[in-house]
Amino acid sequence: MQMIKLLSKILAVIIVLMILPLQTDANEGKIQDQIKVGIRFGESATPVVSLASPNGLALGYYEGDNFKGIMQFFEDIIVRKDDYFINVNGSFITYDFDSQSGSGNKNIEGPVHIQIGNEFSNQQEAENFLNELPNMMEHPYLAYENGWHVWVGCYTSVSEAEETSKNIKLLIQNADLRIITKDDKRVQVLNKYGKVSFMYNTDDVVYAFKAIPQESSNGIIQLDGKSFRGSIIIHRYIGSDLTVINRLDIEEYLYGVVPREMSGDWPIEAQKAQAVAARSYAVVNLNRHENYGFDVCASSHCQVYGGYNSEKSRSTMAVDETRGALLTYDGKVVTAFYHSNSGGHTEDSENVWSNPVGYLRGVDDPYSIGAPNDTWVKVYTKQEIEGVLASNGLSVGTLQNIVVEERSKNSRVLKLAFYGTSGSEILEKGKIRSMFGNNSIKSTWFDMGTNGERNANIMVLYDLNQPAEAIDMNSKYILTAQGLKEFEVANKYVSNGKEYKLIASNANANVDQYTFTGKGWGHGLGMSQWGAKKMAEDGFNYEQILTHYYTGTNIK
C-alpha cells in the first residue's frame, strides 16, 4: 500500500509537469490586465477573516474588469462561513454543535435563520421593507440567495427558530415567515461588534470587498492585518471554509512578487529581469487554479506573493520600467522558470522533466560561482537514508551502497541507485530532491562520498596481444596538471567517445555515512537569480541577462 501511495504521488507530480503550460501565444489578443491570486484555499482556508480599510469598505461584484458596488461598510467587518460558532471574548471559534449540550447557550450561534416576507425584486425594495420593520430583539439584515430577502437571527436549530418565529408574529401581524436551514455555500458579513449586516450565497454571485479609496490609503485593504491592493473575494466551496482571493492589476501583483522572489536591494537590472520573468510566468499560468476560482496561488507552487506589505521601492521601479514586457520564444510567451543558483551551469529541461524545451537549454554560468550555495555539503547516516526511503514507501533492506548511475552532459544526476540486502531502488531526476527535501539536497548536481573504503578494480589493457589486468585503484596516485593526486574511487566515469559510464565500486561493511557534495540550489532551469545579480553588477542590462539564460528568446 505504501508503494501504491508513493507511485500515486510521483504520477501526480509527472502529470502536473506534463500539463503545466510552457508557452502561450503573444499574439492571441489583449492579455488580461487583472489577475486573481489565491491567498487561502483548500487546507489553508479559514472559517473567519477580518477586513478593514481606513475609509471603509465597499461590497460588490465584477462585470469584466469593472467593480460594481452594492453596499458600503464604514467600519471594520468580520466575514465568516455560515456555521456554528461560539463567541469567546469577542472571537468567533467554530463549534461542534451538540443539541443536547449546546442548547440554551447564548454564546453559540448557528446556521439557521428566519426569513421575513417574500423575495423582493431588487435591493432597494428589500432595504425599504427592512427599514419599516418594528424594533425587534434581534437585528434583521439583508440577504441575497436566489434573490433579495430580509432575514433575522443565527439559530442553532429549526426548533429554536420556530420558537422565535412565534414572538415575531406577535410584533408583525400576518407576518409571512420561513425557516432557512444551513447551506454550505453561505457566507455571513458581520459588523465589528459581531452582528450580521449581510448574508450571501456564493452559488449566486462572486462578491468582492474593496477599500473605499482616500489619498492616505491608496485603496489598500487589510485582511487579518495584512495589506493588499485591489479587492478581496471571499468564496465558499462545498465542504470547505472560506476561499480568499486577491484580485488586482497584474502589474500591482508583480509589486508583491519581485521582492519576494529576489531581494529588493539587488541591482535594478537584475530586478527588471526578475520582473519580466515573473510577468511572463504569470501570463502563461493564468487559470492554473481555475478549480478554486483564481489564476495563481501566493506560494512557491506558483510564485511567492506577499501583497502590499512586501513591496520595495526598487522592485516597484523595476516593474514600472518594464511594464507589459514579456519574454517570448517563436512568438509565444514563455514560462520563465528560474532558480536561486545554478552552481556554474544551467540545465536542459529534459534532464529535469522529460520533454526538451527550446528556450530551456543549459548554458555556462560563471556568474553564479562565488555566490551563496554555489557549493554545499549534506551528510546522512545510513539509518537516516533508510528512514527516508521507508517514509516514501521504499525499502532495500539494509543499505549497502548508493551509486550515481547516470548523469547529464551538464553533470546533474539523472539516476541515483540505492542497493541493499533485499533489493535496489532507483530515483530519477527531480524525484531525488523531492524525496530527500529540496532544502537538504539543494540540486541534482552532486557527487557521492562515504566514510568507508571502496574497492575498485579497473581493467587496464597494456598489450593488444595480452589479456587486460585488474588494478585496485585504492591508494593509487595519478598525475594531473596540479601534480600527483590520490585517486578517489567514488563516482569516477570513463568515456568511450559517445557516453560516460560509471566505474563500478563496492562499499565495504564499514560504510555508515554518505556525503552529498553539490553545486547550486534549485532545479537549474532558466535564470539563476544570483547569476543575474552578478551580471547586473558587471554592467549587463536586463535584456542581456534574460537572453543569456533563456536561449533564443526575445523581449516583446
TrEMBL record:
It holds the Pfam family SpoIID. Residues 241-329 form the Sporulation stage II protein D amidase enhancer LytB N-terminal domain. It comes from Marinisporobacter balticus. This is Stage II sporulation protein D. One of its GO terms (biological process) is sporulation resulting in formation of a cellular spore. It comes from the Bacteria. GO terms for cellular component: outer membrane-bounded periplasmic space. NCBIfam families: SpoIID_LytB.
